[in-house]
Design brief:
The chain contains twelve helices and seven strands. The protein is α/β, with parallel strands linked by helices and 291 residues long. The strands form two sheets. The protein has a five-stranded parallel sheet. The protein has a two-stranded antiparallel sheet with strand order 6-7.
């Protein structure tokens, strides 16, 4: 859904505390029905907003955990400290072997708070320390904790491998924090980040940067080629970005109720100017750099 406890300036979802759009249990049940009928589905990636704020979050994760699936939850970390209910979530996620991909756009307090709000860096470190205590980020624990880096403004991410080394060194030395992988993700010129670009007068400059940095080798690994995005109300999209732009899949079945794996696997992917965001530089996807 689009409900979130934060209001980040780079958010392409325009998520926040005032958003009421959340996935119903009925739509989740439809997702499970299609998962059970389609053996090619191996991963379920839960995002938001803050997916933990959905009242049926734990029920859904338990249902998914009973199946042979990789379960990913994209967490903003601060939600895990929000109140007593959410403070039980780290143990719940560990018990269900959930792969956590967490937002941490920088290893400095100044840059993180500028992008995500005052105090977010400190709260994020507190949440990470709790996850580390449960085994997240430790080798051979089976509990994977990855971080996401987003540039602080209208620029492309730096080299993912080099940034990961910096993150691991600084976070370990200064805060005794460990994690598994760092993913660099480009900011998409959509919704709140587009508004930010327009406000600072750099929307055209940023689009020129994305277009001029087009990398053909990144195209073969873009997420829309092996992922289908299900919106809070059950509509199907090629990716999370198309979902926010309301560009539905090019298939006769456009909702989870009409899911047809054969049709979807042979569909033409809907593209637009924002697709340069995933194919610029080293490329960008939910799993980080592509080339």
């Amino acid at each position: 859904g689009k409900m979130c406890n934060q209001v980040c300036e780079h958010c392409h979802v325009d998520a926040g505390p005032d958003r009421k759009e959340i996935m119903s249990k009925e739509t989740m049940m439809e997702c499970i029905k299609e998962i059970d009928s389609c053996s090619s589905i191996t991963t379920v990636d839960l995002t938001g907003g803050a997916p933990e704020m959905n009242p049926n979050f734990k029920w859904f994760v338990k249902e998914l955990s009973s199946r042979e699936l990789e379960i990913i939850v994209r967490s903003n970390l601060t939600i895990l400290l929000a109140n007593k209910e959410y403070q039980s979530y780290p143990q719940f996620l560990a018990d269900n072997k959930v792969h956590i991909i967490a937002s941490l756009p920088c290893y400095t307090e100044e840059n993180t708070d500028k992008q995500r709000g005052t105090g977010v860096f400190s709260k994020s470190l507190q949440a990470i320390a709790i996850l580390n205590q449960l085994g997240y980020g430790s080798e051979n624990s089976g509990l994977v904790l990855d971080f996401v880096f987003n540039p602080g403004g209208p620029s492309l991410p730096g080299n993912q491998e080099d940034l990961e080394k910096d993150y691991k060194r600084i976070l370990k030395d200064q805060y005794n924090i460990i994690f598994n992988n760092l993913f660099t993700i480009s900011n998409m010129p959509i919704s709140r980040f587009l508004d930010y670009l327009i406000t600072i007068g750099k929307d055209e400059q940023y689009m020129e940067l994305l277009c001029n940095s087009f990398n053909p080798s990144a195209v073969k690994n873009v997420m829309c080629k092996n992922t289908v995005s299900v919106s809070w109300d059950g509509q199907l999209f090629d990716c999370d970005f198309n979902q926010m732009l309301e560009l539905p899949v090019n298939s006769s079945g456009k909702t989870i109720q009409d899911f047809n794996a054969n049709q979807l696997s042979s569909r033409n992917i809907v593209i637009n100017e924002h697709c340069y965001g995933c194919t610029a530089g080293a490329g960008s996807s939910c799993q980080g750099a592509l080339s």
